């Protein structure tokens, strides 16, 4: 099945070298070194990486009627592309949109990240795992100032999303990437499940999903990581004045309710 999907995308964008880096239920992610329309000796402006691009492809769903499938694919692809552009306008660090082919379910975007010393990609999860392995009683690398500043920055990014009526929908330490090797500046990625919402419940669920993800992948340090993220989230709301403070209060109150519901479900098994 996967080979058939790859063969189809190669027919849509022939002569483009593709390297599959991940596959989920909704999309496949490819890496390429070729811009969709610029020759190799001309580099686009405004991109942090001018030699690598990410192609996100939503494959056909054989269980759906072909016409309905095309409509859903085009709609979801267009929505995600518009959201990426909106984030660029808001100054939120996320992959910049390069090109879109909505009918074929393709989004071409900026590659964000770099290789960590262990050879893995610079997702927040991989970076924290690396530091956690290096941590000792004498040297808590996983609780360093650079980690704190990174997590405060993540909280601020999420806060800007929520202040502008956007919920990510799939916040995990895999969907947060370190964009810069020197500053460890974070970037949010994978907005396939994102949506617009002004409901405190939706913002609270966003925060809760990330908290649960941190507890699952970083159990020893998760509480401190979450505290720092919430500190950054708090700060960016207060900078927005009274409306931001009200929005923060509503979200955190609902977040505590969502957290209690989650704990109750866990206890009930």
UniProtKB/TrEMBL annotation:
A Gene Ontology term for the protein's cellular component: cytosol
Biological process (GO), any one: tRNA processing
InterPro entries from the UniProt entry: Bud32, Kinase-like_dom_sf, Prot_kinase_dom, RIO_dom, Tyr_kinase_AS
GO molecular function ontology, one term from the record: protein serine/threonine kinase activity
Keywords: Activator, ATP-binding, Chromosome, Cytoplasm, Hydrolase, Kinase, Nucleotide-binding, Nucleus, Phosphoprotein, Serine/threonine-protein kinase, Telomere, Transcription, Transcription regulation, Transferase, tRNA processing
Location(s) in or outside the cell: Chromosome, Telomere; Cytoplasm; Nucleus
Domain Protein kinase: 15-269
Catalysed reactions, as listed in the record: L-threonyl-[protein] + ATP = O-phospho-L-threonyl-[protein] + ADP + H(+); L-seryl-[protein] + ATP = O-phospho-L-seryl-[protein] + ADP + H(+)
Cell division keyword on record: no
Assembly description: Component of the EKC/KEOPS complex composed of at least BUD32, CGI121, GON7, KAE1 and PCC1; the whole complex dimerizes.
Family classification: Belongs to the protein kinase superfamily. BUD32 family.
Protein name: EKC/KEOPS complex subunit BUD32
Annotated source species: Dekkera bruxellensis (Brettanomyces custersii)
Lineage of source species: Eukaryota, Fungi, Dikarya, Ascomycota, Saccharomycotina
